[in-house]
Each structure stands twice: as structure tokens, then as C-alpha cells.
């Protein structure tokens, strides 16, 4: 009988030590990798593999991002290539993770890859370039990457790991391609009891993913948002997390995220909004969270037209308290044009007596605020007053939101027939 578990017993090492164990488990059908206490210097991501569960020692297994090095290009690069040409090839080694971008090639146009070979000024990479990169647009190659990464992975998990992003020695990477943890087109992944701190970007970012569970994680002191659900992700559960002192939002719902649950989280001290909801971010349940002391709004529905609004979202039994630490005059702001937002059983406490509990734009529709919401220290419950065509007292009896209502129609944009 073969091994059921692979153990990493070395107390210190690099990503190569960890990746070898995970890849061996994947190749041989072993389900679990156990990483003991130690500090592991990360020159590339720890890449998740389908079906492999990774266990650390809580508070003692630390993955630390190595300092960033950078070089400009020595030649312009084209979309679809699998190599890059750099001015300072001596800085780079095979096995390093790299981020390729220029002034026009950011967001999803950036490329994150691993160096597979070197030849003169050329570095071969394992993923094709997502864009044309030009020297006149300040194109660069830098060794920044997610500390933990998953591309096209199914049914894997990682728990009891601490990530030190070493932000002071790294440049910023946005959440479309980076994060302390970054997942792209992954399904059925569990992130449990993970700490992500001091990463120069978002703490945890996931794009085009379904059926993730993020439970018991602490995401704090990162240079982007805490959690970044993005790009069509659906059916995700985020619960029992602490999202604290990040330089952007606590939770940033990006584009077309749907049918998620955000529950029992502490969302405190972030520089922008506690929770930001935007373009076609619909059918979410946000409940039993404590959202306090954030720089701007506790919950912010971003400006949109009626098609692109953050519509059909249930906000219930949260404590939304004393936000607007830097700017803003309401605990919840609903910009034009958002519709069908349901607020039930929340406790809303303003930082200043001049603030409002909820402010909605004049083109919003069917903002339902039931009578069991409690407002404290507010100049007014709502602006405009609840006796107008924007606000209603009655919550619909049937609300189809949250992961339990995910169906095949909600994921067909990801080319998934069954949720």
C-alpha cells in the first residue's frame, strides 16, 4: 500500500521544497501534504493541484514572499509568445515567478508565469503572454506573483498556513492577476484558517471560480483589498473571517459575481469601504457581519446603470457601525442606479450625529428597509425620507439569493453546464 500522506519536515526551505511535495502527491494519487513549522522563502507561487489537500501548522508554517527584482525589456513582445527578452537577464533564474506588464497591459492584460529556461537575454515562460508589451510603454518583468496560486484546479484545499507578503520589498500587483492567494477558474477549493498579511496587493483574489469556501481566515494589513471576489465567480461562501486594516476595501465584489454568502466576518479599519458591491454583482447574502471603522462607507453600492447595478442583494442582521472614518456621510450609500436591495434586522450606528443610516440615489428603485432595522446616532434613517418612491418598508416574501440558489443559468457564462 502506498503512502496516504506526504510530510514536509524541513523547518526552513523555499517554494521548491513545497512544490515538490505537492506535485509528487498529485502525480502519485496521494491526497494530503503536511507541512511542518518553518519559514519558506517564496521565489515562485506554491501552485495548487487538483485533489491535493495541504495542511500546515497554524501560526508556525509561514510562506514569505522573496524581495522583488525587475528589469525593463530588451525587445518588444507579442501576444501569445512564451518568452520575454530582458535587459538584465543576470537577475533572473529558472524557477522564478514573474509578472510581465506595461502601462497599457495591466489588469487581466498582465501575465504571471514561471521561468522555464534561459538563453541570452531571453527567458522562457510556462504561460503565454496576455498582451503586446512595448518598451515605449515602460514594459517590465518583475518577480512578483501570488504566494499561493491556483489555475484550473478542482477539489483541493489548503489550511493552517500563514502568508507574509513582504510588501516593503515588492511592487504592487492588482487582483486580476495577483494576491496573497490568487485563484483563476478554480472550482471546489477550500481555504481554511489561513493568515494573509502584508502583501502588496489584495489578500485573497479569485476570478471565474465556483463553489469556494473561505472560512476562518485573517486577511489584514495588505496594500489592496482583503477579499476580491471577481470576474463572474459564483456560489462562494466567505465566513468567519477577519478583514482588517487593508488599504482598500474589506471585501471588493468586482464584476458579475453572484449567489455568494458573506457571513459572520469582522470587517474593520480598512481604508476604503467595508464592503463594495458593483457591476452585476447580484443575488448575494451579506449577514451577521460586523462592519465598523472603515475609511469610507460600511457598505457601498457603486454607481451603475440599471443593467449593470448591484441588484437583488440581501443585507441582514449585520452590525454596521461608525464607518466614514475619513470621508462620507452615511453608513450605507446606494448610488444610482441600483434596484431591489433588501435590508432586514441590521443595527446601523452612525459615527457622527450629522450622518445618515442609508443614502440612496434618486434613480434607485425598490430599496426595501424593514421596520426591524435599528438606527442609532443618525441624523436620519434614510435620505431621501423613507416615505418616497425609492424606499419601501416591505421585504419580499421570497428571496432567491445565496449559494443555495445557484443553478446552471448562473454559471453558463463560465461554460459550465452544471453548477
Your description of this structure?
The chain is mainly beta. The protein has two domains: 5-65 and 145-403, Pectate Lyase C-like; 70-142. Strands 1-3-6-15-18-21-24-27-30-33-36-39-42 form a 13-stranded parallel sheet, covered by helices on one side. The chain has a twelve-stranded parallel sheet with strand order 2-4-7-16-19-22-25-28-31-34-37-40. Strand 11 and strand 12 (122-125) form a beta hairpin. It starts with a strand and ends in a 27-residue tail after the last strand. The mean pLDDT is 96.
What secondary-structure arrangement, pairings included, does this model have?
Elements: E1 5-8, E2 12-14, H1 15-28, E3 32-35, E4 38-42, E5 46-47, E6 53-55, E7 61-65, E8 70-72, E9 83-85, E10 97-101, E11 111-119, E12 122-125, E13 140-142, E14 148-151, E15 157-159, E16 162-164, E17 181-184, E18 190-192, E19 195-197, E20 204-207, E21 213-215, E22 218-220, E23 227-230, E24 237-239, E25 242-244, E26 251-252, E27 261-263, E28 266-268, E29 275-277, E30 285-287, E31 290-292, E32 299-301, E33 313-316, E34 319-321, E35 330-334, E36 339-344, E37 347-349, E38 356-360, E39 365-369, E40 374-376, E41 380-383, E42 391-392
Parallel strand pairs: 1-3, 2-4, 3-6, 4-7, 5-14, 6-15, 7-16, 14-17, 15-18, 16-19, 17-20, 18-21, 19-22, 20-23, 21-24, 22-25, 24-27, 25-28, 26-29, 27-30, 28-31, 29-32, 30-33, 31-34, 32-35, 33-36, 34-37, 35-38, 36-39, 37-40, 38-41, 39-42
Antiparallel strand pairs: 8-13, 9-12, 10-11, 10-13, 11-12
Amino acid at each position: 500500500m502506498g503512502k496516504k500522506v506526504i510530510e514536509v519536515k524541513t523547518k526552513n526551505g523555499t517554494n521548491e521544497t513545497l512544490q515538490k511535495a505537492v506535485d509528487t502527491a498529485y502525480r502519485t494519487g496521494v491526497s494530503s501534504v503536511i507541512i511542518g513549522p518553518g519559514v519558506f522563502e517564496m521565489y515562485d507561487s506554491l501552485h495548487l493541484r487538483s485533489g491535493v489537500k495541504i495542511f500546515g501548522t497554524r501560526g508556525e508554517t509561514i510562506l514569505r514572499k522573496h524581495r522583488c527584482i525587475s528589469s525593463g525589456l530588451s525587445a518588444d513582445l507579442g501576444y501569445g509568445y512564451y518568452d520575454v527578452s530582458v535587459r538584465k537577464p543576470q537577475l533572473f533564474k529558472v524557477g522564478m515567478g514573474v509578472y510581465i506588464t506595461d502601462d497599457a497591459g495591466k489588469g487581466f492584460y498582465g501575465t504571471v508565469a514561471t521561468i522555464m529556461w534561459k538563453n541570452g537575454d531571453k527567458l522562457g515562460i510556462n504561460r503565454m503572454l496576455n498582451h503586446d508589451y512595448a518598451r515605449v510603454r515602460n514594459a517590465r518583468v518583475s518577480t512578483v506573483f501570488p504566494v499561493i496560486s491556483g489555475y484550473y484546479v478542482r477539489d483541493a484545499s489548503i489550511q493552517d498556513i500563514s502568508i507574509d507578503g513582504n510588501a516593503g520589498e515588492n511592487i504592487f500587483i492588482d487582483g486580476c492577476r495577483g494576491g496573497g492567494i490568487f485563484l483563476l477558474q478554480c472550482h471546489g477549493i477550500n481555504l481554511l484558517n489561513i493568515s494573509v498579511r502584508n502583501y502588496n496587493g489584495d489578500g485573497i483574489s479569485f476570478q471565474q471560480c465556483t463553489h469556494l469556501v473561505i472560512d476562518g481566515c485573517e486577511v489584514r494589513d495588505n496594500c489592496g483589498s482583503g477579499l476580491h471576489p471577481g470576474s463572474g465567480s459564483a456560489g462562494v461562501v466567505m465566513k468567519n473571517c477577519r478583514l482588517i486594516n487593508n488599504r482598500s476595501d474589506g471585501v471588493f465584489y468586482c464584476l458579475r459575481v453572484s449567489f455568494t454568502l458573506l457571513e459572520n466576518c469582522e470587517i474593520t479599519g480598512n481604508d476604503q469601504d467595508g464592503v463594495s458591491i458593483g457591476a452585476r454583482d447580484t443575488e448575494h447574502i451579506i449577514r451577521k457581519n460586523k462592519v465598523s471603522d472603515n475609511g469610507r462607507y460600511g457598505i457601498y453600492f457603486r454607481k451603475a446603470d440599471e443593467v449593470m447595478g448591484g441588484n437583488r442583494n440581501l443585507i441582514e442582521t449585520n452590525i454596521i457601525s461608525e464607518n466614514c472614518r475619513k470621508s462620507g456621510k452615511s453608513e450605507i450609500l446606494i448610488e444610482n442606479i441600483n434596484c431591489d436591495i433588501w435590508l432586514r434586522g441590521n443595527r446601523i450606528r452612525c459615527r457622527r450625529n450629522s450622518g445618515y443610516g442609508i443614502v440612496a440615489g434618486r434613480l434607485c428603485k425598490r430599496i426595501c428597509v424593514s421596520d426591524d432595522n435599528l438606527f442609532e446616532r443618525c441624523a436620519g434613517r434614510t435620505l431621501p425620507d423613507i416615505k418616497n418612491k425609492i424606499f419601501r418598508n416591505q421585504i419580499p416574501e421570497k428571496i432567491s439569493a445565496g449559494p443555495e440558489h445557484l443553478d446552471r443559468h448562473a454559471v453558463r457564462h463560465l461554460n459550465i453546464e452544471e453548477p
